[in-house]
Every structure is written in C-alpha cells, then in structure tokens.
Amino acid sequence: QSTLKSMTNDPYPDWRPGEPIPYAALCTTFAKIEMTTKRLEILAHCSLFLRQVLRLTPANLLPTILLMTNKLAADYSGVELGIGESLIMKAVSQSTGRSLAHIKADQNEVGDIGLVAAKSRSKQPTMFKPKALTVPGVHKGLMDIATTEGQGAQGRKVDGIKKLLSAADAHTAGKAVDITKDKGGPSEAKFIVRTLEGKLRLGLAERTVLVALAQAMMFHEMSAKGSKIPSTADLAKAESTLKSVYSELPSYEVIIPAMLKHGILSLPDNCRLQPGVPLKPMLAKPTKSITEVLDRFDGKDFTCEYKYDGERAQIHFVAHDSPLDLVTAPPSAGKSDKGVSNIFSRNSEDLSKKYPDILAKLPDWVKDGTKSFVLDCETVAWDMVERKVLPFQQLMTRKRKDVKVEDVKVKVCVFAFDILYLNGEALVNKPFRNRRELLHEAFVPVEGEFAFAKYSNTNELEEIQTLLEESIKASCEGLMVKMLDGPESSYEPSKRSQNWLKVKKDYLSGVGDSLDLVVLGAYYGKGKRTNWFGAFLLACYNPSTQNFETVCNIGTGFSEAILETLHTQLSTIKIDRPKPFYTHSSGNKDQPDVWFEPKYVWEVKTADLTLSPRYKAAADEVAGGGKGVSLRFPRFIRGRDDKKPEQASTSRMIAEMYQRQDSVAKILSQFRSYH
Ligand code: ATP
Known about the structure:
Bound molecules: adenosine-5'-triphosphate
Distance between the termini: 40 Å
Mean pLDDT: 89
Largest sheet: 8 strands, mixed
Strand content: 15-25%
C-alpha cells in the first residue's frame, strides 16, 4: 500500500468516463512497468491502472486484462498471435512508407522490431491526425488478424497490421520518438508489434496481473460502499479467491463479467470448474530414487501408479439430460446420443479433431447415472493383436488434425488416473483416495479402449521396486507416486506439486529428469549433413526476466530422417539476428549459423550438468562468475509439440538440478562446513 500511495493515479487526459479506454493510456502504464524490475512496483502500476478502469470504464476490463496478459482469448479457444518477423516488417514498411530495405537495416542495427516500428512511425510525416486507438479497438483488430484464415490470409493479416499501425501514436504523430531513451517510451506502435510477436517483454507475469486485478477490485468495491481502503487481510482474501477461481476456471471471459456483477468474494458461488472449460493440469516433481520418495512422503499413505507414456488428455462430458446450468456452453466437439464431449491437451488445446475415435467410443464407458464429468487421463498407443501398450513413438505417427475415425491406424487406449468433476460437483478439493473410488464407480473399463491406471498402495521399498520394473516392461515410463489422504492429496491445478512425484527408470542414475528446451539456432552439418543443420543451440526459459537463456549445443540423437524434417520445419522460422530476449554468449565462436524464432520445444537427456562460459542458463542463480549451467553430452529424445516455449524447463529447475548433482552437492556441503 505504501508503494501504491507514492504513485500518482491521474487518469490519462483523453480518457472520459464511460468511453472506450484510449490505448495510449494502457501503453503509458506498460512503459512505466517496463522501466522497473521491482515486482511490487510492477504490481502497483498494474493495480492503479485497473482501479482507473473500474472507476471510469469497467465495460473495458476484459479486453484490458487480455492485452495485459498477452492473450486474445482463453487458451482453449485456440486463438493465438505469434506473427513471424518477416510479416511484421512488411506491414511496418507498408504502413509507414519506408522501404523494406530500410526497415531490415534498422532491424539489423536495433534488433527489436517493436522499436523499429516506433522509430518508423515517428519519422512519418502526417497530413492529418488519425483517430486514436482504443483498448477494445486494438483487441478487436488483433483478434481479426489472429483469426484470418484461408486463401490470401497472409496478405489480409498484413492489411490488418497496417490498419493498426497507421492509427498508432496519433497523439505524438510527427514528433520524433527517441528509441535510445526509456526503452522507447509509451509508443503504441512498439507495444502493438510486441503483442503481435506474442511477447510483451514487460516482466509482467500473468500471476501479477491476477493479483493486481484482485486488489483493484477490492479497492473499487470498498470505495463504492463508502468504506476507506481495504485492509491487508481483505486484499489477501480477494487474491486467494481470484487465484483459486482462476485455477479451476481459467477463462477471463467467464470470470470478469461474473466478478463485475456479483463482487469478487462471491466468485466461488458463481464460477467453478465446469465441463467445457479445461483447467491447467497438475504436474509432478522429479525424484532420483525410491528411497527419496519414501523420505519425502515420510510415514504418510501414498499410492504408486504406472506412468503411461503417451499424451495427456482431459476429457469433458455433459449428458443431454444433465441438469447442469453451465456458465459457458462447451464447444460441441463430439456429439453422441448421450451427450457432448471434448478432449483437451496438457496445454488446453482442443484435441477433439485428433481423437474422434475416443469421442465416438466414450459413451460406452460411461455408466448410466454418470451425467457430467472431467477426467484426467493419458492416451496411449495400443497394440490390438498383442493387446498391450505400445511405445510413445507409435502415438507420434498419428495425424494431429482432421482425423477420420475410419482412417485411424494407430489405435489408442485411454488410461484414466483422476476425476476432477462428477455429476455437477467439482472434486478437486476431495482427497485422492475418495476421487479414485468415484472414478472407479462411474465408468466401465473396456479392453484396449478405456482402463484405470494400474496402481498399488504399497509403502514397501521392495514392492515399489518390483512395480517400477513391471511398469517399464509394460512400456511405461516409470511410476507416479501420489499422496492419498488429507488436504495434501487434493488436485492442485497448474502446480508442479510435491504431492505428486515421478520416478522414471532411466533417471535413477542420471541427473533427475529429462529437460524440455527451446531451439534458438542451428549450425550447418559436416560430411553427409552439409545440406541440413547438423547441430542446434538450445535454451531454457527464465520466467522472471521472460528471456530464453542458452544451455547447450546438441548434435546427438537425430536420425537422418529427423534431420531432414527438422531442416524443412526450422527453415520457415529463420530470423536474421537473435531476438533481444535471447541471453547468449557474445563470443564469435559461439554464434550459430542461423537463428530462429522461439517456437519448438525438444525433450533432451543429459549425462550431467556443468558450468560453462559459453552458455548463460541460470547464470544469476548459480553464482559461477558469469558462467551458465550447461548440459554435457545432451541427446535428443523427441519434439514436445504439446509444450509452448514458455513452458520449457526453467532456469530455476536447471539451477536446482545442477546443485542437486551428487558431485556438486558434496563440494557445496564441504564448502559450508569449512566456513
Ligand atoms: P514429462 O511428461 O516429460 O514427465 P511433463 O512436464 O509433461 O513431463 P510431468 O509433471 O513431469 O509432466 O509428468 C506428468 C505427466 O505424466 C502427465 O502430464 C501425464 O501426461 C503423464 N502421466 C502418465 N501416467 C500418469 C499417471 N498415472 N498420473 C499422472 N500423470 C501421468
């Protein structure tokens, strides 16, 4: 609150009550946020702006929050930006009348296409002042660009971008913007371009926006009631309410109107987990040994399940005769005599077009009294002849889109391991033992189509060892170990939780887990591989700086066929120079031959981790005198199409893995005892 008090809360001059929010007002806040790295200050700027929104134009709260979180709609709607650099450069050139060669030269010098747009726009002579952009107007313009499809889509996208850029910075039109000062200031062109790229780069995490929204709403409600400012306890209550509602129902489209109508503290009565809106899945922490599992769950009851190696699937269903009154109708992906069903990925993408075979068979597994549910499952390739699970690689050969049931060659079996919602009731807060009982009561297994994850509730080391070996023989990755009772065993959406541990056979002796890394660059091959890329530069993600930090070069684990495919795939996302949000070595020898947009995530295994001056991963966290953590002998395992670059392994995870290595742990403990 003291941070809040020291900041001004004057609304933007052209912003009149009830009228659409000028986009320039939002950009002014963005520019203030960009100038600080202090979380509390970022939070305060965000919260003050949202209080103005609530006071002056609450009808624009939804597009404001969407633009602040760099989304156009809820994740499951599938609407995304992430427009490539070349298309943006074309639009900047056309809208500002500068030649593409000039724009490219600027981009080579400045390295930030947002700043290039700001500079180009400010240099442009203007005959008349364009109509100022508004927050809902920019949101709609971006939405049109993102949803443009079909023939000539690229050209129409460029037109859409041109339209926005031509109206940008109406208030400063003709006045030069100094892009070397204050990171380019509140230029609208800069922030439009960054939003188009899919990266605002303000250091504004979605969690911070959520907290700011809760605070602003609490201030607003209290002042509407004539009370003074809310207490710390009021603010904490508002924050925890909004966070928990959002984790069950991650859709601002549903939450914001309900919050404006009923008030923030009444949200849990109006917005709860519901079929049709996927929640972010709970994730597990890696462990290195079964004894570590026993230590962590010290004396508590837990259960060991097979960790199936396929694709995560959240299956939603509502029967036609269900008495449910849903806030938002589920997309009607799979319709049958019994009801409407959807399948969502780990990323909340709609997988219904990939698995029409599952949706067609699903009604057979549902018992008569089961009217609505949300299941957490793994879909696994299934050998119809041998009647057993097939390795993950088989599943990868399935088409991803527009699959027809009659064409399906790789059959899948669904292994259900949790139930999050049943017959109108959210189950996430119930103990796992209880949820599992409900799961087993509500469904009927059908061999090769639907099964419950195999498990044993043993706490005995030897029995767990045997189960782990059996799971590997059954083509699984190992075991998932889960708490059974009490509040610790509730389902924690979107959390990598201590209460779910994974034990994989092949990391019992290694560093812990495999890593998921983003491809930033490539080196041309030698010998047989001269036509393709032979090695690649990989990076992890640092959520606090929103930068990608390089972690290794990799050239092992690729078949010739994979290298050929990768060459085709990656050639489309080449860029002339590294993005400003890549943290990498500047040494001449360390530069890859080509750089890429951050798009693809690969799973990689490593023998161990070491410090290296060539890489920058977790350099701030491991205190290695500027050296980063790097992977030794990395090996490519597979592409992770179900992960976005921002979901790659984080610098923190890599630092923890490095510090946990036996050799490093020994040195650290010697160091501590010595001092
Ligand atoms: P990885 O899949 O590489 O282990 P991840 O980050 O995708 O990493 P984790 O939290 O590490 O996810 O592992 C959990 C994943 O294991 C789930 O996302 C799910 O797809 C899969 N899985 C298979 N069997 C189970 C099970 N019985 N319980 C929970 N998850 C399971």
